[in-house]
Amino acid sequence: VPVPVLLAARGCSSAGERGSGRRERPSGQRFLQVQKAGSKGSVGLIRLQRPQALNALCEGLMAELRRALDAFEADAQVGAIVITGSDKAFAAGADIKEMQGKSFQQCYGGAFLAGWDRVATVRKPTIAAVNGYAVSVPVSLRALCRVPHARGRDSWRSPPAVPITPSPGAGGTQRLTRAVGKSLAMEMVLTGERISAAEAKAAGLVSKVFPVDKLLDAAISCAEKIASNSKLVVAMAKESVNAAFETTLAEGNRTEKRLFYATFATDDRKEGMTAFVEKRKANFTDS
Ligand SMILES: CC(C)=CC(=O)SCCNC(=O)CCNC(=O)[C@H](O)C(C)(C)COP(=O)(O)OP(=O)(O)OC[C@H]1O[C@@H](n2cnc3c(N)ncnc32)[C@H](O)[C@@H]1OP(=O)(O)O
């Protein structure tokens, strides 16, 4: 049973949101629904809910998202996080109406977007369950899903964290807007071209494709599986995978090796290997 998580809220203003429809929820959030999910409450579930603007990422939404991520990061029960959207959109990129009137001075001086990479710095694996539009991927997909590729099998030392998207077949209009890397994001802005979930998968953008009605369950179940591993070692694995993306091959390998050596200082490494040899389920203590 999902457990609501209480967080403070602040907000943006868009046409329909000034009316009664966009009031704060009792939980305190205006633009998100934040819950714990999974049979053991080990999955932090964040649903972007700003339907009037197709979940465009305004500053208020991003502030709530940061707080939700901070809360899940600090929550010892939570081992992985799922971020999803609403029926029509995962997220329509940054809020154009909010950006429209900004000057360079306001952007640069006011450190516009400064806190947005919190999504990328979360140490717990994050899965993006992408339903519908996902525009401007550097923000709304890749950045929301900092460990973008499934790497090997999910064992105690190598958990995958995968972006997931539904099949475009269900409903017909469920499409990903083309917004891949920096250059394709630009192409998207210029052409408005769209790609299907299958094409996105072929381009390495997403790891798994599900029918819309199965998407969230699949993402939660994947997150639960990750969360059942040692949280300590999972964090090391994520750090290592990120290093592989952010540094040279040699530096990535060095980081991975160092972190692997470091696992030998943990009880969970010993328990994981012992359980493997004894052919039993490991009992991790996150220590
Ligand atoms: C990250 C950085 C630095 C930059 C960026 O992200 S730039 C922004 C990139 N995003 C976009 O360019 C997407 C803009 N949106 C669209 O192209 C379309 O909305 C769509 C293709 C995603 C969906 O089209 P559709 O016809 O189905 O829906 P609309 O009528 O266009 O939208 C419904 C409703 O949502 C508002 N909306 C949509 N996207 C944004 C946005 N990014 N910022 C603010 N508001 C947005 C849209 O205005 C409309 O609301 P109103 O009817 O009240 O105007």
Rg calc: 19 Å
Strand content: 5-15%
Instruction: Kindly report the CATH topology of the largest domain.
Output: 2-enoyl-CoA Hydratase, Chain A, domain 1
Give me the side-by-side strand order of the main sheet.
1-2-3-4-6
Order of helices and strands: EEEHEEHHHEEHEEHEHEHHHH
Percentage of residues assigned to helices: 25-40%
3D shape: globular
Strand-pairing-aware structural class: alpha/beta
The total domain count is 2
Oligomeric grouping of the chains: single chain
- Ligand types: ligand LDTOBESC
CATH class of the largest domain: Alpha Beta
Distance between the termini: 27 Å
Strand segment tally: 11
- Helical segment count: 11
pLDDT averaged residue by residue: 75
Largest sheet: 5 strands, mixed
Under the CATH scheme, the architecture of the largest domain is Alpha-Beta Complex
What is the CATH H-level superfamily of the largest domain? 2-enoyl-CoA Hydratase, Chain A, domain 1
Question: Can you give me a brief rundown of this structure?
Answer:
This protein has 287 residues and is an alpha/beta fold. It contains eleven helices and eleven strands.
Q: What does this protein structure show overall?
A:
With 287 residues, this protein is of the alpha/beta class. It has two domains: 3-229, Alpha-Beta Complex (2-enoyl-CoA Hydratase, Chain A, domain 1), CATH 3.90.226.10; 235-277, Lyase 2-enoyl-coa Hydratase, Chain  A, domain 2, CATH 1.10.12.10. Helix content is 38%, strand content 13%. It has eleven helices and eleven strands. It has helices at 59-74, 96-99, 104-109, 118-121, 137-140, 182-191, 197-202, 212-227, 231-246, 249-263, 267-277, and strands spanning 3-4, 32-37, 43-48, 80-84, 89-91, 126-129, 133-134, 164-166, 176-177, 194-195, 208-210. The strands form four sheets. A five-stranded mixed sheet has the order 1-2-3-4-6, sandwiched between helices. Helix 9 (231-246) runs antiparallel to helix 10 (249-263). The longest helix is centred in the N-terminal third of the chain and has 16 residues, at 59-74. The chain is globular, with a radius of gyration of 19 Å. The protein binds ligand LDTOBESC. Ligand LDTOBESC binds at residues 15, 53-54, 56, 92-97, 133, 135-136, 139, 177, 189.
